[in-house]
Amino acid sequence: MIRKGTILGGCAALLLAAVLSGAALAGSEDVVVEDAWARASIGTSRPGAAYMTIRNTGEEALTLSGISTDLAMQPEVHLSATDARGVNSMAPAGEIEIAPGEAVALEPGGLHAMLMMLQRPMVEGETFDLTLIFSDGGEVRVEVPILGIAARGLND
Ligand SMILES: [Cu+2]
Questions:
Q1: CB-based burial of residue 89 (10 Å sphere; 0-12 exposed, 13-18 middle, 19+ buried)?
Q2: Number of compact structural domains in the chain
Q3: Is residue 21 a part of any domain in this protein?
Q4: Which domain holds residue 92?
Q5: What is the CATH number of the domain that holds 89?
Q6: Separation of 93 CA from ligand 1 center, angstroms?
Q7: Please, which residues have CB less than 5 A from ligand 1, an ion?
Q8: Other CB atoms closer than 10 Å to residue 24's CB: what's the count?
Q9: Where is the signal peptide (predicted)?
Q10: Percent of the chain topping pLDDT 70
């Protein structure tokens, strides 16, 4: 599994701080992932993207700090935006806090799991594993089904 040094370092520092202060860690076991899906790719020259709803059913805020998958060399959570002139762009979303009882939607046109440097084509009908990494050091593995190349959502 590929993890960035900064994320690892951040986790270690956070864990240490939590242990030293005796604070309870917000549990990534409280994470429920719903409706994960991705679109088939044409080969591997363009990045892929995955979408899902990440729900925090716990009592404390959770922070999504990164993602990993062996499907892509450089997986990253991105945020798409359209400016006043109608120009689309996207950028790394950074850390994403999910309040207790709230959910964050990764969906076309907004937040998405960007899968850069695909290691193999994303083939319709197959699945791949994506791991959500939280700032408490917890990880949640998600099995993502790959839909057709023109899919706009799970039921569409
Ligand atoms: Cu992106």
A1: exposed
A2: 1
A3: yes
A4: 5-147
A5: 2.60.40.1890
A6: 9
A7: 78, 90, 114
A8: 10
A9: 1-26
A10: 82
